[in-house]
Amino acid sequence: MEIQSELNLQFRHNTKTLAALLLALAQAKNEATKLYILPHHRADGDAIGSAFGLNIACQKLGLKSEVLLAEPVPPMYAYLSLPDYAVLDTEAKAAQFVDKLTQEQAYVCLIDNSAPETRLGVRFALWQACQEERRLIIDHHVSDIPAGERYDIAANEIACSGMVAELIILLEKQSGQSLLDANLANCLMTGIITDSGQLSYAATSAQTYLLMAILKQHGADQELINRVHYHTMSVAKLKMIALAFSQTEFSYDNTCLVSHLTAEQIQQAQAGEVDLDGISSMLREVRSVKVAVLLRSTLKGNVLGSIRSTEAINCQNIAKQLGGGGHERASGFTIYNVTLEEAKAHFLSACKTELESEDAE
After folding, report:
1. Which of 12, 53, 131, 252 has the fewest other C-beta atoms within 10 Å?
2. Calculated CA dihedral for residues 39, 43, 44, 47, nearest 10 degrees
3. Domain DHHA1 spans what residues (predicted)?
4. What's the helix, strand, coil split of the chain in %, to 5?
């Protein structure tokens, strides 16, 4: 790949370790060996792109693998040709795979996720059942998990799909086999584009553009990806945007914006996760706003928060105070058994601490 050598990609030590392991597993040709790939629940473009990107590459190498999701892939990803996958949305379904995992020489890979207890749902049982030496992680979120040779966690990376792209390029080098094609490149580019805000976020690096060039060279269609994710929307999403903007409140001299959606409003509009994605980023675009949050209640009595901030505020610090995490400019949290008003009060308190810290500097 001429473009790759000219642009001098850099590879992390743990990426090299994972590449060597996956290649060794593939070359061993052991029918009992399988890799289960678990992205976070409510999978977004990066979780879907990175999980299925790794899945497709492993299958091309001859390593049996399968993606296990918490929910079905939304219809908007129909432009991707995805391998068969399983949806584990009940404890009974998860238990079936736990039984399979213990019978097989199975590995479990968390992808775009290094918080298994809170971001896997019932699939956490598989992580618990997996032998520690067979656990793998590829993630770009800040993590409390202790460092490990097979844990490729890089919080400075813009997208997990970029990390998987690097891994696949290494696998091509080491195996001498061509893995990237148009469909695989589209999976990975989907993750990079959607998690980087169309390459607009600060964590977008020179290496991100190098990877985009390589994926483009292999047939990725950035026009299609951008059109699907940023230039078309469902009626349900339009309704959610209208409600979110009509239910905004400002605090702290208009630097903090809070909006909310109730579970009933979401249900009435028949809105899914893809219809809610991106709204918090739109709220942040108000000129005076340094930090914005979209709160949404669930039918179980919990409140989910999606925070976005400008360079003036580290919203990851706010999310951590509320039991969540993420990135400096994009983070999230879940507060259990609270009303929207209570969640709003918790958020504003955490936000005040961060704003005061920023003012002190």
Report:
1. 131
2. 10
3. 268-354
4. 50, 15, 35
Tokens of 27: 């070359």
Q: Is 31 helix (H, G, I), strand (E, B) or coil?
A: coil
Asked whether residue 6 carries a pLDDT value surpassing 60, the answer given is no
So where are the chain's domains? Answer: 2-230, 235-359
**Residue tagged 């590449």 (tokens):** 19
Rounded distance between C-alpha atoms, residue 307 and residue 261, angstroms:
14
The burial of 217, by beta-carbon neighbours within 10 Å (0-12 exposed, 13-18 middle, 19 or more buried), is given as: middle
pTM of the entire predicted model: 0.88
**CB contact set of 85 (below 8 Å; sequence gap of 6+):** 52, 55, 66, 67, 68, 69, 73
Q: Find out whether 314 and 282 touch, Cβ atoms under 8 Å.
A: no
Mean pLDDT, rounded, for 150-176: 94
Report how far residue 279's alpha carbon sits from residue 259's, in angstroms, rounded to the nearest whole number: 10
- E strands within 86-173? 86-87, 105-111, 135-139, 151-153
Q: Is the pLDDT of residue 133 over 60?
A: yes
Query: Coil, strand, or helix at residue 358?
Result: helix
- DSSP per residue, 159-182: -HHHHHHHHHHHHHHHH------H
Enclosing H/E stretch for 308: strand 303-309
- Report which of 240, 174, 162, 173 is spatially closest to residue 206, judged by C-alpha positions: 162
Residue 67, H or E segment: strand 65-69
For the 235-359 domain, the top CATH level (class) is alpha beta
Beta-bridged to residue 139, according to DSSP, are: 153
Distance of CA 306 to the CA centre of its chain: 13
CA-wise closest residue to 68 among 24, 111, 104: 111
Highest CATH level, class, for 2-230: alpha beta
